[in-house]
Fold this sequence. Notes:
With 204 residues, the chain is α+β, with helices and mostly antiparallel strands. Helix content is 25%, strand content 24%. The protein contains two helices and seven strands, in the order H-H-E-E-E-E-E-E-E. Strand 5 (175-180) and strand 6 (188-192) form a beta hairpin. The protein is elongated and about 180 Å long.
Amino acid sequence: MKTVTNLTAMFSITLLATLMTGCGGGGGGSESSSPAPTATQTSTQPAATANTSTAANEPQQTEPAQTPAQEPAATMEDFMPQAELKESAATDSTDLYVMPDFKFRTSDEVTMEFSGENVFGESLAGRTIKIYSFDVEVPSVEDELMGNKALVATLRFNPSGQLQHTLTLPQTAKTMLVRVDSMLETNQVLFPLDSDEAIVHTFK
């Protein structure tokens, strides 16, 4: 009987101690669940911040822009023909020799100044004047080449009996014929187109 009483007392004490330990342990467990920051974490973060600040303050180095090399200006020697190419005909445009100041054109401008009067001494005011061109040199108005003339312009004398005009003719034109519709001793005249000077003539 005494043994049963002792066992009951020991069981009660053990149960009480277990209950007290469970209540107290919960509080201790919550305090230990949050680990304190370590010294390594605290010292590492400032170092990273310092490196970032230093990189931001350093000036960025840029490579200088490269300027394209300028080609040397062409000289007269660059346009001189090769001696071997002058011995044969050109096969295409790359074989042609062209001077630097060459200007391609297909026409020429001719400046004309005409005046005169008919056989009665009257002014040629209002009279019609016709201009023809030839692709060949025509020696005289009686030459058979006169039949190859081409009409290029029809003009009139002004009220003062004067005519000043600049005419554009094909560069192939070699001779110009001027004919006046009036009573004249010589109503047509040939002019060679071999100079840049103005053509001046007085009809009579």
